[in-house]
Amino acid sequence: MGFASQLSGPDLNQATRDASPPAAPAPAAAAAPKPIAQQEYYKPKEYDPSTKVDPLVKPEGGLYAQASWITVYPIHWLCRKTMPDCRSEKYKNWYPLTFFLSMVWISFYSYFMVWMITIIGYTMGIPDTVMGLTFVAAGVSVPDALSSIAVVREGYGDMAVSNAVGSNVFDILICLGLPWFINTAIVKPGSTVKVISKGLTYSTLSLLSTVVFLLVATHLNGWKLDRRYGIILLVWYLIFITLASMYELNVFARWNPVECPSEY
């Protein structure tokens, strides 16, 4: 008989516990995963007063520089005299007023631009829809393009794409909905606004196809913005604007009525 057979009761239990293999040490705590480095939010470059350029001072240069300065001098003068420079220490807390006045001036110049383009289009016999698809769209989209270029140079391509998509959503829902609401609910309650453009269905479908094309092209390009991607988008824009303008000019069929002569 073995040693265990000579013990009984509490002595046997104690011997069994003593003979059992030692418990395995507790596993060490798993190392905490390293935090994933996140891209910082876009931060504009710090304002350096030493590099400040006064647009009201006549620059030194050739004829082109002088002509450009004279042309935009009234705009610069009005902006400098009406909007506080919130980049300076004196007016650093005045940014809400600067932003509001900037929107006021943009609205004024946009109205003036649409007015002039309407007159030019009527004089040259070009329908309003074609002028809106080309010159007006390009004019009001210049600020969006410049802001997208600024953030792309800083390496934030996703912000540029979001800006382009968000501005189009704002243009369609707010820039169309708000004027129509004001005219039909406040200026002329109960009235309606007639859209004289049978090519609107074609233009809307073309716009939808452009959105689909943007997503497909971005996916096929590996969600990267490069030179080839930019060329593809530019070519697609030329195709879209050409077909849409031909549609509005009744090249394919007489969809839109001829404008009546007017003295205004």
UniProtKB/TrEMBL annotation:
Entry GO MF terms: calcium channel activity; calcium, potassium:sodium antiporter activity; symporter activity
UniProt region (Disordered), positions on chain: 1-36
Protein name, entry field: Sodium/calcium exchanger membrane region domain-containing protein
Chain ranges of the Sodium/calcium exchanger membrane region domain: 95-244
Keyword DNA-binding set for record: no
Key words, A-Z: Antiport, Calcium, Calcium transport, Ion transport, Membrane, Potassium, Potassium transport, Signal, Sodium, Sodium transport, Symport, Transmembrane, Transmembrane helix, Transport
Single GO biological process annotation from the record: intracellular calcium ion homeostasis
TM ranges: 97-124, 130-152, 164-187, 199-217, 229-247
Compartments (UniProt record): Membrane
Species classification: Eukaryota, Metazoa, Ecdysozoa, Arthropoda, Hexapoda
Organism: Aromia moschata
InterPro entries xrefs: K/Na/Ca-exchanger, NaCa_Exmemb, NCX_ion-bd_dom_sf
Similarity comment: family membership: Belongs to the Ca(2+):cation antiporter (CaCA) (TC 2.A.19) family. SLC24A subfamily.
